[in-house]
Design a protein that fits this description.
Elements: E1 6-11, H1 14-17, H2 20-26, E2 30-35, H3 43-60, E3 63-65, H4 71-77, H5 89-109, E4 113-116, H6 126-139, E5 143-144, H7 154-165, H8 176-180, H9 184-197
């Protein structure tokens, strides 16, 4: 793959990708998706989101790389940050892990550019995400495509588009802590079980 105009697009979920993918394709980018997913809990939820990503990829005619589901890896990265609020340091480390994995895949595929769908969400810190993406890309010799996808009604467009395509749209970010929040005792029990079954 020629690195010029070839992009690895980190996909957090299908609804958030249903605007970036067609927009990038229309601009002439050669787009390959990358759906990390090990931050998503429980496994049934991961499976539902994966199915939606596959539906979107097939619809847009784009390839999407799906790494193995390894929630234990994600739990190790955020160990000690269990009590962080949503949007705090735990989320930063989660973004970093996903973008680092994306950068490695971009290198493997020979992509020259990297981008993420995370900035379509009205709930996420887009400056932090783009800053992380830029620094991680630079470390790997990649170019970061700075986008704030929620601009120009990007989020509302994604809601409408995901409905048109029948994509599953989740009601929480994805991790075990956002799933059980604010019941920390239930979360501790779920984490212990997850680590034993990994």
């Amino acid at each position: 793959m020629s690195p010029e105009k070839s992009m690895l697009l980190h996909i957090c979920c299908a609804p958030d990708a249903c605007i970036p993918i067609p927009d990038l394709l229309a601009e002439g980018w050669n787009v390959t998706g990358y759906f990390y997913g090990s931050n998503i809990h429980p496994r049934d939820e991961y499976t539902r989101r994966l199915e939606a990503v596959n539906i979107l990829s097939a619809h847009e005619g784009t390839e999407c790389v799906i790494p193995s589901y390894c929630p234990g890896e994600w739990l190790e990265v955020v160990r000690g940050l269990e009590h962080e609020p949503e949007g705090g340091r735990r989320c930063t480390e989660c973004f970093r892990l996903q973008l680092e994995a994306s950068a490695k895949e971009a290198l493997r595929l020979g992509c020259g550019y990297m981008c993420t769908t995370l900035t379509i969400s009205p709930h996420k810190n887009v400056n932090l995400i783009n800053s992380l993406g830029e620094s991680i890309s630079a470390l790997h010799g990649l170019k970061w495509e700075y986008r704030i996808w929620r601009k120009n009604n990007g989020f509302l467009r994604s809601v409408g588009r995901s409905k048109e395509l029948g994509l599953y749209r989740q009601n929480y970010c994805g991790c075990i802590y956002s799933f059980h929040e604010p019941d920390m005792e239930l979360t501790k029990s779920a984490v212990t079980h997850l680590m034993k079954t990994e």
